[in-house]
Structures are given as C-alpha cells and as structure tokens.
Amino acid sequence: SLLDLPMNILAIAIMMKLGLAPLHFWMPEVLQGISLPTGLILSTWQKIAPMALLIQTSHLINLNLTVVLGLTSVLIGGWGGIGQTQLRKIMAFSSIGHLGWIIIILKFDPQLSLFNFILYLTMTTAMFLSLITISAMKMSDISTSWSKIPALTLVTMLILLSLAGLPPLTGFAPKLLITLELVKQSATLLAATIMFASLLALFFYLRLTYITALTLSPNTPNSLLTWRTPLSSFSITAIINILALILLPMTPS
C-alpha cells in the first residue's frame, strides 16, 4: 500500500548504507581503496547504526523486500568474491554475504538477526585484526606469512573456516540458527536456496584457507634468523580471535 512506501524507501536506503546487493556497488571499491584499519571500521562499526534502525523498524518492513535483498546479497557475496585476489575486496563480498543471511531472517525473528549480527562483527573484526598484524593486502601476502608468524597464520586459517560457516566453529551458529528458524516458519525452500547460494562463498573461503596454510612460499628462509622487523601483536587480537572460533557451544538453543 501507499502507507508502506515511505518505510520501504527508508529500508532500501538503510540497506544501501549497509552495502546489501544489489545496492552494494560502492562497498568493494571503497574497501579496496582504504587501509585495513579503516576497512575494519567500515565493515563493523559503520554498520551498527543502520542495523539498529532496521531491527527497530523490522515490523514495518516488507517481507518480500528483505527476502529478495537478502537472497541477492548471499548470491552476489559468493559470486563476487570468487575471482578476487585482493583480501579487502574478498572481505567486502564476505560482508555482503553475511549481511544477506542477517537480513533474510530480520522479519521472521529480529532478536536472532541481532544475535547473528553480533557474531558477524566478532568474526569480521578477528579477520581484519589478523590481516593487520600480518600486514596482508593480497593473497600472495597471506601465503608468505607462515614463515613470519605461523601461529597467527594458523588461527587466520581457522577464522576463514569460521567465516565460511563450518562446524564446530563460531560461524556455524548463524547458518544453523537461521536455517532452523526458516524451517520452523515453513520457509524450507528459502532455507535450502540460501544454503546452496552460500556454497559460492565457501569456495573462495576454502581457496584462501588453502593458500594460507596448505601452501609454502618458495622464499621460506632456511636460516634461524629472519631479517625482518618484529611484528607487534596485541592482546585484543588474541581475545577476538578466540571468540571468533569457540562461541558455538554457547549459542542459545
């Protein structure tokens, strides 16, 4: 109806601010053009206010709008990240895909949407902090990080698998809870569709995981002393990384 039109226009504007497909065109390019710390802010902190607005007004938003934009975001988030070699662009498409899952469930269960958004913030923050510590901008950078900081490289690999949504890591919780809620709401076809669509994203996560931990750089030094400046590490990185990996047992039933 005409009364719903202003609310739907507002919702579309907020979703553009979040970077949801097909209103996502600004996000990968902007994220590619900024530094990793700024990218962390853009991917996490900048999305809190728009998401809070969406959750508070979820009862007024059209269901078809959230489902269509959410499903499109999951598809674009997976499809767009497949051919990328720049880690910031990959994280941009990863963000689009995750927000698609969150928006799909928004109308059905706003509390679940908020919970999944918190998990998204945790995992994305962990990934960006790891990339900042490793100073990785491209796939080639992350493939040579094993000789510099092997422990964090291993954790980064696990965070990638968590972002992919593989059990028993934290990232499995959003997909599990959203799928269960959709089935409970008799939207089994929608649940199956987004699960199949998320396989596209799984491909590039697994490719990154393979490059990170299962390949060795040809330039690995054989000497005990490495001619590199010491890497600075922060306790907050370790804490966030742990949360991004082991929160699954603490998810609500």
From TrEMBL:
Pfam families documented for this protein: NADH_dehy_S2_C, Proton_antipo_M
Keywords: Electron transport, Membrane, Mitochondrion, Mitochondrion inner membrane, NAD, Respiratory chain, Translocase, Transmembrane, Transmembrane helix, Transport, Ubiquinone
Enzyme class: translocase
Domain NADH:quinone oxidoreductase/Mrp antiporter transmembrane: start-end pairs: 9-200
Annotated localization: Mitochondrion inner membrane
GO cellular component: mitochondrial inner membrane
EC number(s) on file: 7.1.1.2
Membrane topology: Multi-pass membrane protein
Main location: mitochondrion
Residue stretches spanning the membrane: 7-27, 60-78, 114-137, 149-169, 189-210, 231-250
Coiled coil: none
Residue stretches making up the NADH dehydrogenase subunit 2 C-terminal domain: 202-252
GO BP term, pick one: mitochondrial electron transport, NADH to ubiquinone
Physiological role: Core subunit of the mitochondrial membrane respiratory chain NADH dehydrogenase (Complex I) which catalyzes electron transfer from NADH through the respiratory chain, using ubiquinone as an electron acceptor. Essential for the catalytic activity and assembly of complex I.
Protein family per UniProt: Belongs to the complex I subunit 2 family.
Entry protein name: NADH-ubiquinone oxidoreductase chain 2
